[in-house]
Protein backbone atom coordinates (compact mmCIF):
# COMPACT_ATOMS: atom_id res chain seq x y z
CA UNK A 1 0.00 0.00 0.00
CA UNK A 2 1.40 3.40 -0.94
CA UNK A 3 1.79 5.64 2.11
CA UNK A 4 -0.85 8.37 2.21
CA UNK A 5 0.23 11.86 1.41
CA UNK A 6 0.48 14.36 4.25
CA UNK A 7 -2.74 16.29 4.74
CA UNK A 8 -3.20 19.30 2.49
CA UNK A 9 -4.75 22.14 4.44
CA UNK A 10 -6.52 24.91 2.65
CA UNK A 11 -5.74 28.45 3.74
CA UNK A 12 -8.62 28.62 6.15
CA UNK A 13 -7.53 25.38 7.84
CA UNK A 14 -3.93 26.57 7.84
CA UNK A 15 -5.04 29.75 9.62
CA UNK A 16 -6.47 27.54 12.37
CA UNK A 17 -3.14 25.75 12.79
CA UNK A 18 -1.23 29.05 12.62
CA UNK A 19 -3.49 30.48 15.28
CA UNK A 20 -2.69 27.55 17.58
CA UNK A 21 1.06 27.94 17.00
CA UNK A 22 0.95 31.68 17.64
CA UNK A 23 -1.18 31.11 20.71
CA UNK A 24 1.37 28.64 22.10
CA UNK A 25 4.21 31.06 21.43
CA UNK A 26 2.41 33.95 23.08
CA UNK A 27 1.56 31.84 26.11
CA UNK A 28 5.17 30.74 26.48
CA UNK A 29 6.46 34.31 26.14
CA UNK A 30 4.02 35.64 28.69
CA UNK A 31 4.97 32.86 31.09
CA UNK A 32 8.67 33.63 30.81
CA UNK A 33 8.11 37.36 31.24
CA UNK A 34 6.04 36.87 34.35
CA UNK A 35 8.42 34.24 35.73
CA UNK A 36 5.40 32.12 36.55
CA UNK A 37 4.21 28.68 35.59
CA UNK A 38 0.61 29.25 36.65
CA UNK A 39 -2.44 28.33 34.60
CA UNK A 40 -2.64 30.02 31.20
CA UNK A 41 -5.50 32.45 30.75
CA UNK A 42 -7.86 31.51 27.95
CA UNK A 43 -8.10 34.02 25.10
CA UNK A 44 -11.38 35.82 24.50
CA UNK A 45 -13.87 34.26 22.07
CA UNK A 46 -15.50 30.83 21.75
CA UNK A 47 -14.21 28.21 24.17
CA UNK A 48 -11.40 25.98 22.90
CA UNK A 49 -12.42 22.32 22.60
CA UNK A 50 -10.16 19.96 24.49
CA UNK A 51 -10.20 16.25 25.17
CA UNK A 52 -10.81 16.79 28.87
CA UNK A 53 -11.90 19.68 31.07
CA UNK A 54 -9.31 21.56 33.05
CA UNK A 55 -6.53 24.13 32.69
CA UNK A 56 -2.83 23.73 32.09
CA UNK A 57 0.08 25.95 32.91
CA UNK A 58 1.72 27.96 30.19
CA UNK A 59 4.79 25.73 30.43
CA UNK A 60 2.66 22.62 30.01
CA UNK A 61 0.86 24.15 27.02
CA UNK A 62 4.22 24.92 25.46
CA UNK A 63 5.36 21.35 26.07
CA UNK A 64 2.18 20.00 24.46
CA UNK A 65 2.65 22.28 21.45
CA UNK A 66 6.26 21.15 21.10
CA UNK A 67 5.27 17.47 21.32
CA UNK A 68 2.62 18.02 18.65
CA UNK A 69 5.20 19.74 16.45
CA UNK A 70 7.47 16.70 16.77
CA UNK A 71 4.56 14.44 15.85
CA UNK A 72 3.79 16.52 12.75
CA UNK A 73 7.42 16.48 11.64
CA UNK A 74 7.52 12.70 11.97
CA UNK A 75 4.25 12.36 10.04
CA UNK A 76 5.51 14.57 7.22
CA UNK A 77 8.62 12.37 7.01
CA UNK A 78 6.53 9.18 6.83
CA UNK A 79 7.60 7.90 10.24
CA UNK A 80 4.14 6.71 11.30
CA UNK A 81 5.19 4.96 14.47
CA UNK A 82 7.10 7.98 15.77
CA UNK A 83 4.18 10.27 14.89
CA UNK A 84 1.77 7.99 16.75
CA UNK A 85 3.98 7.93 19.84
CA UNK A 86 4.42 11.72 20.01
CA UNK A 87 0.73 12.43 19.35
CA UNK A 88 -0.25 9.82 21.96
CA UNK A 89 1.80 11.67 24.61
CA UNK A 90 -0.40 14.73 24.18
CA UNK A 91 -3.64 12.76 23.95
CA UNK A 92 -2.99 10.53 26.95
CA UNK A 93 -0.99 12.78 29.33
CA UNK A 94 -2.12 16.29 28.32
CA UNK A 95 -5.83 15.92 27.45
CA UNK A 96 -6.65 19.41 28.79
CA UNK A 97 -4.20 21.07 26.43
CA UNK A 98 -5.56 23.44 23.80
CA UNK A 99 -3.82 21.32 21.15
CA UNK A 100 -5.15 17.99 22.43
CA UNK A 101 -7.87 17.78 19.79
CA UNK A 102 -5.34 18.46 17.03
CA UNK A 103 -3.10 15.81 18.55
CA UNK A 104 -5.98 13.31 18.45
CA UNK A 105 -6.62 14.19 14.80
CA UNK A 106 -2.95 13.62 13.97
CA UNK A 107 -3.02 10.36 15.92
CA UNK A 108 -5.98 9.21 13.82
CA UNK A 109 -4.10 10.14 10.64
CA UNK A 110 -1.02 8.26 11.80
CA UNK A 111 -3.03 5.14 12.63
CA UNK A 112 -4.67 5.28 9.21
CA UNK A 113 -1.30 5.73 7.51
CA UNK A 114 -0.02 2.67 9.33
CA UNK A 115 -3.02 0.64 8.16
CA UNK A 116 -4.68 0.49 11.58
CA UNK A 117 -8.20 1.05 10.32
CA UNK A 118 -10.08 0.26 13.52
CA UNK A 119 -7.85 2.46 15.69
CA UNK A 120 -8.10 5.34 13.19
CA UNK A 121 -11.88 4.94 13.12
CA UNK A 122 -12.17 4.99 16.92
CA UNK A 123 -10.13 8.20 17.15
CA UNK A 124 -12.13 9.83 14.32
CA UNK A 125 -15.44 8.88 15.95
CA UNK A 126 -14.25 10.37 19.24
CA UNK A 127 -13.45 13.62 17.45
CA UNK A 128 -16.87 13.62 15.83
CA UNK A 129 -18.52 13.41 19.26
CA UNK A 130 -16.33 16.18 20.69
CA UNK A 131 -16.39 18.81 17.97
CA UNK A 132 -19.33 21.22 17.66
CA UNK A 133 -21.30 21.53 14.40
CA UNK A 134 -19.49 23.76 11.95
CA UNK A 135 -16.01 22.95 13.21
CA UNK A 136 -13.83 22.43 10.16
CA UNK A 137 -12.00 19.59 11.85
CA UNK A 138 -15.15 17.48 11.53
CA UNK A 139 -14.38 17.14 7.83
CA UNK A 140 -10.75 16.32 8.62
CA UNK A 141 -11.80 13.57 11.04
CA UNK A 142 -14.33 12.15 8.57
CA UNK A 143 -11.73 12.16 5.79
CA UNK A 144 -9.26 10.26 7.94
CA UNK A 145 -11.86 7.62 8.69
CA UNK A 146 -13.14 7.45 5.10
CA UNK A 147 -9.68 7.08 3.61
CA UNK A 148 -8.82 4.35 6.07
CA UNK A 149 -12.03 2.48 5.23
CA UNK A 150 -11.45 2.83 1.51
CA UNK A 151 -7.89 1.53 1.86
CA UNK A 152 -9.26 -1.42 3.83
CA UNK A 153 -11.66 -2.34 1.01
CA UNK A 154 -14.79 -0.92 2.65
CA UNK A 155 -15.82 1.77 0.15
CA UNK A 156 -19.52 1.87 1.02
CA UNK A 157 -18.72 2.62 4.67
CA UNK A 158 -16.24 5.29 3.52
CA UNK A 159 -18.90 7.17 1.58
CA UNK A 160 -21.44 6.85 4.39
CA UNK A 161 -18.99 8.45 6.83
CA UNK A 162 -18.66 11.50 4.57
CA UNK A 163 -22.39 11.76 3.88
CA UNK A 164 -22.95 11.92 7.65
CA UNK A 165 -21.08 15.24 7.83
CA UNK A 166 -23.17 18.33 8.65
CA UNK A 167 -24.21 19.98 5.36
CA UNK A 168 -22.50 23.27 6.23
CA UNK A 169 -19.18 21.42 6.66
CA UNK A 170 -19.60 19.08 3.70
CA UNK A 171 -20.44 21.90 1.29
CA UNK A 172 -17.04 23.57 1.76
CA UNK A 173 -14.76 20.55 1.77
CA UNK A 174 -13.24 19.88 -1.62
CA UNK A 175 -11.22 16.89 -0.40
CA UNK A 176 -14.35 15.10 0.84
CA UNK A 177 -16.13 15.84 -2.44
CA UNK A 178 -13.20 14.45 -4.45
CA UNK A 179 -13.06 11.27 -2.37
CA UNK A 180 -16.81 10.67 -2.69
CA UNK A 181 -16.59 11.03 -6.48
CA UNK A 182 -13.63 8.69 -6.74
CA UNK A 183 -15.21 5.99 -4.59
CA UNK A 184 -18.69 6.30 -6.12
CA UNK A 185 -17.25 5.87 -9.62
CA UNK A 186 -16.09 2.37 -8.67
CA UNK A 187 -19.29 1.17 -6.96
CA UNK A 188 -21.98 -0.92 -8.59
CA UNK A 189 -25.67 -0.17 -8.79
CA UNK A 190 -26.65 -2.05 -5.64
CA UNK A 191 -23.96 -0.42 -3.50
CA UNK A 192 -24.88 3.08 -4.66
CA UNK A 193 -28.57 2.41 -4.04
CA UNK A 194 -27.92 1.21 -0.50
CA UNK A 195 -25.89 4.36 0.25
CA UNK A 196 -28.62 6.68 -0.98
CA UNK A 197 -31.31 4.76 0.87
CA UNK A 198 -29.64 5.67 4.18
CA UNK A 199 -28.15 9.06 3.22
CA UNK A 200 -29.13 12.09 5.35
CA UNK A 201 -31.14 14.67 3.47
CA UNK A 202 -29.50 17.91 2.44
CA UNK A 203 -25.88 16.78 2.24
CA UNK A 204 -24.34 18.18 -0.98
CA UNK A 205 -21.92 15.25 -1.07
CA UNK A 206 -24.90 13.06 -2.00
CA UNK A 207 -25.11 14.72 -5.44
CA UNK A 208 -22.19 12.84 -7.05
CA UNK A 209 -23.53 9.60 -5.57
CA UNK A 210 -26.97 10.32 -7.05
CA UNK A 211 -25.49 11.01 -10.46
CA UNK A 212 -23.34 7.87 -10.34
CA UNK A 213 -26.44 5.86 -9.44
CA UNK A 214 -28.42 7.52 -12.23
CA UNK A 215 -25.69 6.50 -14.66
CA UNK A 216 -25.83 2.90 -13.46
CA UNK A 217 -29.62 2.88 -13.85
CA UNK A 218 -29.24 4.12 -17.40
CA UNK A 219 -26.79 1.31 -18.16
CA UNK A 220 -29.33 -1.11 -16.69
CA UNK A 221 -32.00 0.15 -19.07
CA UNK A 222 -33.99 1.99 -16.39
CA UNK A 223 -34.25 5.32 -18.20
CA UNK A 224 -37.17 6.51 -16.06
CA UNK A 225 -35.29 5.78 -12.84
CA UNK A 226 -32.19 7.55 -14.16
CA UNK A 227 -34.22 10.62 -15.06
CA UNK A 228 -35.77 10.75 -11.57
CA UNK A 229 -32.33 10.57 -9.93
CA UNK A 230 -30.97 13.26 -12.24
CA UNK A 231 -33.89 15.55 -11.36
CA UNK A 232 -33.35 14.83 -7.67
CA UNK A 233 -29.67 15.77 -8.03
CA UNK A 234 -30.65 19.09 -9.56
CA UNK A 235 -33.09 19.70 -6.71
CA UNK A 236 -30.37 18.80 -4.19
CA UNK A 237 -28.21 21.67 -5.37
CA UNK A 238 -26.04 20.24 -8.15
CA UNK A 239 -23.49 22.79 -9.33
CA UNK A 240 -21.02 23.25 -12.16
CA UNK A 241 -20.39 20.15 -14.27
CA UNK A 242 -22.91 18.17 -12.21
CA UNK A 243 -25.71 20.31 -13.68
CA UNK A 244 -24.69 19.39 -17.23
CA UNK A 245 -24.35 15.71 -16.32
CA UNK A 246 -27.77 15.67 -14.69
CA UNK A 247 -29.38 17.38 -17.68
CA UNK A 248 -27.71 14.98 -20.12
CA UNK A 249 -29.01 11.98 -18.16
CA UNK A 250 -32.50 13.46 -17.96
CA UNK A 251 -32.51 14.10 -21.73
CA UNK A 252 -30.94 10.75 -22.69
CA UNK A 253 -27.83 12.37 -24.18
CA UNK A 254 -24.21 11.28 -24.01
CA UNK A 255 -22.60 12.64 -20.86
CA UNK A 256 -20.34 15.68 -21.23
CA UNK A 257 -16.68 15.41 -20.41
CA UNK A 258 -13.40 14.49 -21.95
CA UNK A 259 -13.18 12.77 -25.33
CA UNK A 260 -14.35 9.13 -25.25
CA UNK A 261 -11.12 8.21 -27.01
CA UNK A 262 -10.58 5.31 -29.38
CA UNK A 263 -11.79 1.75 -29.89
CA UNK A 264 -9.78 -0.89 -31.75
CA UNK A 265 -11.34 -3.71 -33.77
CA UNK A 266 -8.98 -6.64 -34.36
CA UNK A 267 -10.42 -8.72 -37.23
CA UNK A 268 -9.14 -11.15 -39.92
CA UNK A 269 -9.89 -8.73 -42.75
CA UNK A 270 -7.40 -10.50 -45.05
CA UNK A 271 -7.75 -14.07 -43.77
CA UNK A 272 -9.22 -17.05 -45.62
CA UNK A 273 -12.09 -16.18 -47.98
CA UNK A 274 -14.83 -17.48 -45.65
CA UNK A 275 -13.32 -15.89 -42.57
CA UNK A 276 -12.64 -12.67 -44.45
CA UNK A 277 -16.26 -12.45 -45.59
CA UNK A 278 -17.57 -12.96 -42.07
CA UNK A 279 -15.09 -10.42 -40.66
CA UNK A 280 -16.21 -7.88 -43.24
CA UNK A 281 -19.80 -8.32 -42.06
CA UNK A 282 -18.71 -7.76 -38.46
CA UNK A 283 -16.78 -4.67 -39.55
CA UNK A 284 -19.85 -3.26 -41.25
CA UNK A 285 -21.95 -3.81 -38.14
CA UNK A 286 -19.38 -1.95 -36.03
CA UNK A 287 -19.26 0.89 -38.52
CA UNK A 288 -23.05 1.21 -38.57
CA UNK A 289 -23.21 1.27 -34.75
CA UNK A 290 -20.66 4.08 -34.51
CA UNK A 291 -22.26 6.07 -37.33
CA UNK A 292 -25.63 6.12 -35.54
CA UNK A 293 -24.29 6.63 -31.99
CA UNK A 294 -24.61 9.95 -30.12
CA UNK A 295 -20.79 9.77 -29.99
CA UNK A 296 -20.49 9.73 -33.80
CA UNK A 297 -17.61 12.06 -34.66
CA UNK A 298 -16.26 11.98 -31.10
CA UNK A 299 -15.18 8.36 -30.86
CA UNK A 300 -12.72 6.85 -33.31
CA UNK A 301 -12.63 3.17 -34.32
CA UNK A 302 -9.41 1.76 -35.72
CA UNK A 303 -9.71 -1.49 -37.68
CA UNK A 304 -6.61 -3.67 -37.30
CA UNK A 305 -6.12 -6.69 -39.57
CA UNK A 306 -4.86 -9.85 -37.87
CA UNK A 307 -5.04 -11.89 -41.12
CA UNK A 308 -6.28 -14.88 -39.09
CA UNK A 309 -2.74 -15.53 -37.79
CA UNK A 310 -1.96 -15.85 -34.09
CA UNK A 311 1.32 -13.92 -34.24
CA UNK A 312 -0.45 -11.08 -36.01
CA UNK A 313 -3.22 -11.12 -33.39
CA UNK A 314 -0.65 -10.59 -30.63
CA UNK A 315 0.99 -7.76 -32.58
CA UNK A 316 -2.34 -6.02 -33.20
CA UNK A 317 -3.32 -6.29 -29.51
CA UNK A 318 -0.03 -4.72 -28.43
CA UNK A 319 -0.48 -2.03 -31.07
CA UNK A 320 -3.97 -1.25 -29.79
CA UNK A 321 -2.82 -1.10 -26.17
CA UNK A 322 0.08 1.12 -27.12
CA UNK A 323 -2.35 3.47 -28.83
CA UNK A 324 -4.31 3.94 -25.61
CA UNK A 325 -7.63 2.46 -26.71
CA UNK A 326 -10.53 2.20 -24.27
CA UNK A 327 -11.64 -1.23 -25.53
CA UNK A 328 -10.87 -3.86 -28.16
CA UNK A 329 -13.54 -5.52 -30.32
CA UNK A 330 -12.53 -8.98 -31.55
CA UNK A 331 -10.81 -11.27 -32.30
CA UNK A 332 -13.29 -13.76 -33.75
CA UNK A 333 -11.94 -17.26 -33.13
CA UNK A 334 -11.14 -19.12 -29.92
CA UNK A 335 -7.40 -19.46 -30.60
CA UNK A 336 -7.19 -15.82 -31.60
CA UNK A 337 -8.92 -14.72 -28.41
CA UNK A 338 -6.50 -16.82 -26.37
CA UNK A 339 -3.57 -15.21 -28.18
CA UNK A 340 -5.07 -11.77 -27.54
CA UNK A 341 -5.38 -12.39 -23.81
CA UNK A 342 -1.79 -13.63 -23.61
CA UNK A 343 -0.51 -10.60 -25.51
CA UNK A 344 -2.45 -8.04 -23.50
CA UNK A 345 -0.34 -6.44 -20.78
CA UNK A 346 -2.91 -4.14 -19.20
CA UNK A 347 -6.58 -4.20 -18.36
CA UNK A 348 -8.08 -3.12 -21.68
CA UNK A 349 -11.44 -4.91 -22.00
CA UNK A 350 -11.71 -7.30 -24.96
CA UNK A 351 -15.10 -8.15 -26.45
CA UNK A 352 -15.25 -10.84 -29.12
CA UNK A 353 -18.37 -10.99 -31.28
CA UNK A 354 -18.11 -14.76 -31.81
CA UNK A 355 -15.55 -16.72 -29.76
CA UNK A 356 -16.94 -19.62 -27.76
CA UNK A 357 -14.05 -20.27 -25.37
CA UNK A 358 -13.31 -17.36 -23.03
CA UNK A 359 -10.09 -18.01 -21.07
CA UNK A 360 -10.60 -18.37 -17.32
CA UNK A 361 -9.32 -15.68 -14.95
CA UNK A 362 -8.44 -13.48 -17.90
CA UNK A 363 -9.73 -10.17 -16.56
CA UNK A 364 -12.27 -8.18 -18.56
CA UNK A 365 -12.79 -10.48 -21.56
CA UNK A 366 -16.26 -11.08 -23.01
CA UNK A 367 -17.82 -12.81 -25.98
CA UNK A 368 -21.22 -12.69 -27.60
CA UNK A 369 -20.64 -16.26 -28.78
CA UNK A 370 -19.71 -17.99 -25.52
CA UNK A 371 -22.07 -20.32 -23.67
CA UNK A 372 -25.08 -18.28 -22.65
CA UNK A 373 -26.46 -19.47 -19.31
CA UNK A 374 -29.72 -17.66 -20.03
CA UNK A 375 -31.39 -20.56 -21.87
CA UNK A 376 -30.74 -23.38 -19.36
CA UNK A 377 -31.44 -21.08 -16.41
CA UNK A 378 -34.77 -19.94 -17.88
CA UNK A 379 -35.71 -23.52 -18.74
CA UNK A 380 -34.96 -24.77 -15.22
CA UNK A 381 -36.90 -21.89 -13.66
CA UNK A 382 -39.91 -22.67 -15.85
CA UNK A 383 -39.79 -26.42 -15.19
CA UNK A 384 -39.74 -25.84 -11.45
CA UNK A 385 -42.53 -23.26 -11.61
CA UNK A 386 -44.93 -25.59 -13.46
CA UNK A 387 -44.15 -28.67 -11.40
CA UNK A 388 -41.90 -30.66 -13.75
CA UNK A 389 -39.67 -31.67 -10.88
CA UNK A 390 -38.30 -35.01 -12.12
CA UNK A 391 -36.55 -34.96 -15.47
CA UNK A 392 -34.01 -36.80 -17.59
CA UNK A 393 -31.32 -34.78 -19.40
CA UNK A 394 -29.91 -35.89 -22.77
CA UNK A 395 -26.98 -34.02 -24.33
CA UNK A 396 -23.74 -34.45 -26.31
CA UNK A 397 -20.78 -35.61 -24.27
CA UNK A 398 -18.82 -32.43 -24.93
CA UNK A 399 -19.11 -28.95 -26.37
CA UNK A 400 -21.43 -26.01 -25.58
CA UNK A 401 -24.48 -28.23 -25.09
CA UNK A 402 -22.71 -30.16 -22.32
CA UNK A 403 -22.10 -26.87 -20.51
CA UNK A 404 -25.75 -25.89 -20.94
CA UNK A 405 -26.75 -29.24 -19.42
CA UNK A 406 -24.52 -28.66 -16.41
CA UNK A 407 -26.04 -25.22 -15.82
CA UNK A 408 -29.59 -26.62 -16.08
CA UNK A 409 -28.88 -29.49 -13.67
CA UNK A 410 -27.34 -27.19 -11.06
CA UNK A 411 -30.18 -24.70 -11.31
CA UNK A 412 -32.94 -27.30 -11.07
CA UNK A 413 -31.27 -28.79 -7.98
CA UNK A 414 -31.17 -25.33 -6.38
CA UNK A 415 -34.92 -25.09 -6.96
CA UNK A 416 -35.64 -28.47 -5.38
CA UNK A 417 -36.05 -30.53 -8.55
CA UNK A 418 -34.17 -33.69 -9.40
CA UNK A 419 -32.54 -35.20 -12.48
CA UNK A 420 -33.35 -38.89 -12.56
CA UNK A 421 -30.66 -39.67 -15.11
CA UNK A 422 -28.17 -37.78 -17.29
CA UNK A 423 -27.71 -39.44 -20.67
CA UNK A 424 -25.03 -38.52 -23.18
CA UNK A 425 -24.09 -39.35 -26.74
CA UNK A 426 -21.04 -38.77 -28.89
CA UNK A 427 -21.26 -35.76 -31.22
CA UNK A 428 -22.31 -36.91 -34.68
CA UNK A 429 -24.39 -39.85 -33.42
CA UNK A 430 -27.57 -40.65 -35.37
CA UNK A 431 -29.15 -43.44 -33.32
CA UNK A 432 -30.58 -42.80 -29.86
CA UNK A 433 -32.42 -46.08 -29.25
CA UNK A 434 -30.68 -46.90 -25.99
CA UNK A 435 -31.26 -43.44 -24.53
CA UNK A 436 -34.92 -43.41 -25.57
CA UNK A 437 -35.54 -46.80 -23.98
CA UNK A 438 -34.11 -45.55 -20.69
CA UNK A 439 -36.50 -42.60 -20.82
CA UNK A 440 -39.40 -44.96 -21.55
CA UNK A 441 -38.55 -46.98 -18.47
CA UNK A 442 -38.15 -44.00 -16.13
CA UNK A 443 -41.22 -42.06 -17.40
CA UNK A 444 -39.99 -38.70 -16.09
CA UNK A 445 -42.05 -35.51 -16.09
CA UNK A 446 -39.84 -34.16 -18.84
CA UNK A 447 -36.90 -34.85 -21.13
CA UNK A 448 -34.49 -31.93 -21.29
CA UNK A 449 -32.59 -31.63 -24.56
CA UNK A 450 -29.77 -29.06 -24.61
CA UNK A 451 -28.52 -30.09 -28.04
CA UNK A 452 -27.09 -28.36 -31.13
CA UNK A 453 -29.38 -27.46 -34.00
CA UNK A 454 -27.85 -30.19 -36.20
CA UNK A 455 -29.15 -32.90 -33.85
CA UNK A 456 -32.75 -31.72 -33.46
CA UNK A 457 -34.13 -33.59 -36.48
CA UNK A 458 -32.75 -36.99 -35.42
CA UNK A 459 -33.59 -36.71 -31.74
CA UNK A 460 -37.04 -35.21 -32.24
CA UNK A 461 -38.07 -37.90 -34.73
CA UNK A 462 -36.81 -40.71 -32.49
CA UNK A 463 -38.57 -39.26 -29.45
CA UNK A 464 -41.77 -39.45 -31.49
CA UNK A 465 -40.95 -42.98 -32.71
CA UNK A 466 -40.56 -44.15 -29.12
CA UNK A 467 -43.83 -42.43 -28.28
CA UNK A 468 -42.50 -40.37 -25.42
CA UNK A 469 -45.30 -37.84 -25.84
CA UNK A 470 -47.92 -40.57 -25.31
CA UNK A 471 -46.22 -41.36 -21.99
CA UNK A 472 -46.74 -37.77 -20.85
CA UNK A 473 -43.06 -36.88 -21.13
CA UNK A 474 -42.71 -33.16 -21.91
CA UNK A 475 -39.84 -32.34 -24.29
CA UNK A 476 -37.82 -29.22 -23.36
CA UNK A 477 -34.93 -27.78 -25.32
CA UNK A 478 -32.54 -24.84 -25.29
CA UNK A 479 -32.19 -22.20 -28.00
CA UNK A 480 -31.61 -24.60 -30.94
CA UNK A 481 -35.24 -25.77 -30.76
CA UNK A 482 -36.45 -22.20 -31.24
CA UNK A 483 -34.11 -21.44 -34.15
CA UNK A 484 -36.10 -20.30 -37.18
CA UNK A 485 -34.18 -22.60 -39.54
CA UNK A 486 -34.79 -25.62 -37.31
CA UNK A 487 -38.49 -24.89 -37.00
CA UNK A 488 -38.78 -24.54 -40.77
CA UNK A 489 -36.90 -27.76 -41.58
CA UNK A 490 -38.11 -30.20 -38.88
CA UNK A 491 -41.61 -31.66 -39.22
CA UNK A 492 -44.21 -30.08 -36.92
CA UNK A 493 -45.25 -33.63 -36.05
CA UNK A 494 -42.00 -33.83 -34.07
CA UNK A 495 -41.79 -30.32 -32.66
CA UNK A 496 -45.36 -29.28 -31.80
CA UNK A 497 -45.69 -28.89 -28.04
CA UNK A 498 -41.94 -28.72 -27.39
CA UNK A 499 -40.87 -26.08 -24.85
CA UNK A 500 -37.85 -23.98 -25.78
CA UNK A 501 -35.96 -21.19 -24.05
CA UNK A 502 -34.79 -18.84 -26.76
CA UNK A 503 -34.01 -15.17 -27.33
CA UNK A 504 -36.82 -13.60 -29.29
CA UNK A 505 -35.11 -11.82 -32.15
CA UNK A 506 -36.79 -10.98 -35.42
CA UNK A 507 -38.18 -8.29 -37.64
CA UNK A 508 -40.67 -7.10 -35.03
CA UNK A 509 -38.14 -6.82 -32.21
CA UNK A 510 -37.11 -3.30 -31.26
CA UNK A 511 -33.37 -3.88 -31.08
CA UNK A 512 -33.17 -5.83 -34.31
CA UNK A 513 -35.35 -3.33 -36.13
CA UNK A 514 -33.14 -0.44 -35.05
CA UNK A 515 -30.06 -2.33 -36.21
CA UNK A 516 -31.59 -3.19 -39.59
CA UNK A 517 -32.77 0.36 -40.20
CA UNK A 518 -29.42 1.85 -39.16
CA UNK A 519 -27.46 -0.57 -41.34
CA UNK A 520 -29.56 -0.09 -44.45
CA UNK A 521 -29.67 3.69 -44.06
CA UNK A 522 -25.92 3.89 -43.53
CA UNK A 523 -24.89 1.62 -46.40
CA UNK A 524 -27.88 2.42 -48.64
CA UNK A 525 -28.55 -1.22 -49.45
CA UNK A 526 -30.69 -4.13 -48.29
CA UNK A 527 -29.12 -6.41 -45.70
CA UNK A 528 -29.40 -10.01 -46.90
CA UNK A 529 -27.07 -11.80 -44.42
CA UNK A 530 -27.58 -10.19 -41.00
CA UNK A 531 -25.70 -12.60 -38.70
CA UNK A 532 -22.19 -11.12 -38.84
CA UNK A 533 -23.25 -7.45 -38.99
CA UNK A 534 -25.66 -8.01 -36.08
CA UNK A 535 -22.85 -9.41 -33.91
CA UNK A 536 -20.56 -6.51 -34.85
CA UNK A 537 -23.36 -4.05 -34.06
CA UNK A 538 -23.97 -5.54 -30.62
CA UNK A 539 -20.28 -5.73 -29.70
CA UNK A 540 -19.73 -2.09 -30.64
CA UNK A 541 -23.03 -0.94 -29.10
CA UNK A 542 -22.17 -2.39 -25.68
CA UNK A 543 -18.91 -0.42 -25.57
CA UNK A 544 -20.53 2.72 -27.00
CA UNK A 545 -23.26 2.51 -24.38
CA UNK A 546 -20.81 2.78 -21.48
CA UNK A 547 -18.81 5.49 -23.25
CA UNK A 548 -22.02 7.48 -23.70
CA UNK A 549 -22.56 7.12 -20.00
CA UNK A 550 -19.27 8.81 -19.21
CA UNK A 551 -16.87 5.86 -18.77
CA UNK A 552 -13.39 6.91 -19.81
CA UNK A 553 -10.35 4.68 -19.97
CA UNK A 554 -10.05 0.87 -19.90
CA UNK A 555 -10.69 0.43 -16.16
CA UNK A 556 -13.84 2.54 -16.13
CA UNK A 557 -15.12 0.89 -19.33
CA UNK A 558 -14.58 -2.59 -17.86
CA UNK A 559 -16.38 -1.67 -14.63
CA UNK A 560 -19.26 -0.05 -16.50
CA UNK A 561 -19.73 -3.05 -18.80
CA UNK A 562 -20.55 -5.16 -15.74
CA UNK A 563 -23.45 -2.77 -15.06
CA UNK A 564 -25.12 -3.24 -18.46
CA UNK A 565 -28.54 -4.81 -18.05
CA UNK A 566 -31.34 -5.41 -20.58
CA UNK A 567 -29.67 -3.72 -23.55
CA UNK A 568 -31.97 -4.24 -26.52
CA UNK A 569 -29.50 -5.39 -29.14
CA UNK A 570 -29.70 -6.92 -32.58
CA UNK A 571 -29.09 -10.47 -31.32
CA UNK A 572 -31.27 -10.25 -28.21
CA UNK A 573 -31.74 -8.38 -24.97
CA UNK A 574 -28.25 -8.37 -23.46
CA UNK A 575 -26.91 -8.10 -19.92
CA UNK A 576 -23.40 -8.51 -18.53
CA UNK A 577 -23.03 -10.51 -15.33
CA UNK A 578 -19.98 -12.06 -13.74
CA UNK A 579 -17.84 -11.66 -16.84
CA UNK A 580 -20.42 -13.20 -19.17
CA UNK A 581 -22.80 -11.69 -21.69
CA UNK A 582 -26.28 -13.08 -21.17
CA UNK A 583 -29.30 -12.85 -23.42
CA UNK A 584 -32.75 -12.65 -21.92
CA UNK A 585 -34.59 -15.81 -22.88
CA UNK A 586 -38.32 -16.35 -23.09
CA UNK A 587 -39.79 -19.79 -22.50
CA UNK A 588 -42.03 -20.47 -25.48
CA UNK A 589 -43.94 -23.35 -27.01
CA UNK A 590 -43.38 -24.57 -30.59
CA UNK A 591 -46.60 -24.81 -32.58
CA UNK A 592 -46.99 -25.11 -36.35
CA UNK A 593 -43.34 -24.03 -36.80
CA UNK A 594 -44.04 -20.86 -34.82
CA UNK A 595 -43.42 -19.82 -31.22
CA UNK A 596 -46.33 -19.35 -28.83
CA UNK A 597 -46.30 -17.65 -25.44
CA UNK A 598 -47.78 -19.57 -22.55
CA UNK A 599 -49.74 -17.85 -19.79
CA UNK A 600 -47.67 -17.53 -16.63
CA UNK A 601 -47.46 -20.71 -14.58
CA UNK A 602 -48.96 -22.92 -17.29
CA UNK A 603 -47.59 -25.73 -19.44
CA UNK A 604 -48.61 -27.41 -22.71
CA UNK A 605 -51.74 -29.48 -22.45
CA UNK A 606 -51.59 -33.22 -22.90
CA UNK A 607 -53.96 -34.13 -25.70
CA UNK A 608 -55.98 -37.37 -25.92
CA UNK A 609 -57.37 -39.47 -28.73
CA UNK A 610 -60.77 -40.98 -27.95
CA UNK A 611 -60.73 -44.69 -27.22
CA UNK A 612 -61.92 -46.92 -30.03
CA UNK A 613 -64.96 -49.13 -29.23
CA UNK A 614 -64.30 -52.66 -28.10
CA UNK A 615 -64.56 -54.70 -31.34
CA UNK A 616 -66.52 -57.48 -29.60
CA UNK A 617 -68.86 -55.48 -27.37
CA UNK A 618 -68.90 -52.11 -29.12
CA UNK A 619 -68.43 -50.44 -25.74
CA UNK A 620 -66.15 -47.41 -25.57
CA UNK A 621 -63.88 -47.54 -22.50
CA UNK A 622 -64.33 -44.77 -19.98
CA UNK A 623 -61.72 -42.06 -19.60
CA UNK A 624 -60.26 -39.20 -21.64
CA UNK A 625 -58.68 -41.47 -24.23
CA UNK A 626 -55.14 -42.33 -25.25
CA UNK A 627 -52.43 -39.68 -24.74
CA UNK A 628 -51.63 -38.13 -28.11
CA UNK A 629 -48.94 -35.58 -27.42
CA UNK A 630 -48.89 -31.99 -26.22
CA UNK A 631 -50.49 -28.84 -27.56
CA UNK A 632 -49.45 -25.32 -26.71
CA UNK A 633 -53.07 -24.34 -26.22
CA UNK A 634 -55.85 -26.64 -25.09
CA UNK A 635 -58.51 -27.66 -27.60
CA UNK A 636 -61.74 -25.78 -27.23
Descriptive account of the structure:
- It is a single chain.
- With 636 residues, the chain is an alpha/beta fold.
- Helix content is 49%, strand content 13%.
- The protein contains 25 helices and 17 strands.
- The strands form four sheets. Strands 7-6-8-9-10-14-15 form a seven-stranded mixed beta sheet, with helices on both faces. It has a five-stranded parallel beta sheet with strand order 2-1-3-4-5, with helices on both faces.
- The protein is elongated and about 125 Å long.
- The relative contact order is 0.07.
Could you write a compact summary of the structure shown?
The chain is an alpha/beta fold. The strands form four sheets. It has a seven-stranded mixed β-sheet with strand order 7-6-8-9-10-14-15, with helices on both faces. The protein has a five-stranded parallel β-sheet with strand order 2-1-3-4-5, sandwiched between helices. Strands 11-12-13 form a three-stranded antiparallel β-sheet. Helix 16 links the parallel strand 3 and strand 4.
